[in-house]
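<instruction>
Derive structure tokens from the sequence
<data>
Labelled lines for chain and fold
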Amino acid sequence: MTSRFTELVVDCRDPERLADFWCQVLDFQVIERSEGKVEIGSWVPTVEEVRARQTPPTLVFIQVPEGKTAKERLHLDVSPIDGSTHDEVSRLLGLGATTVDVGQGPGRSWVVMADPEGNEFDVLRTLAAGR
């Protein structure tokens, strides 16, 4: 008996806003939406495909009444695929992200950022060819 990692759920105040932000960051699409919930992903999963093999998880944004109160114990890492880390950080700032200090100290090879609701994520080294 085994399980699959199928979704990562993010509690938030505005699911539509965060889904839009993360769709732009990751080139995902909205898969499903309902009152207070938006699911996004790189593909539309089917039960058969998920049962057959490990597949990329989706992100599900669920509306909750309270705001974020502490540093997350779980966060996303993203890696640019067609530009430098610096260029990706600039693009994400333009989408509404901010840079944050969570005690990472200077001289790191990654940049800690937060999405429009303050959820931390890291921008890692670029995966772009020749960089």
Notes: Helices lie at 15-26, 47-52, 85-95.
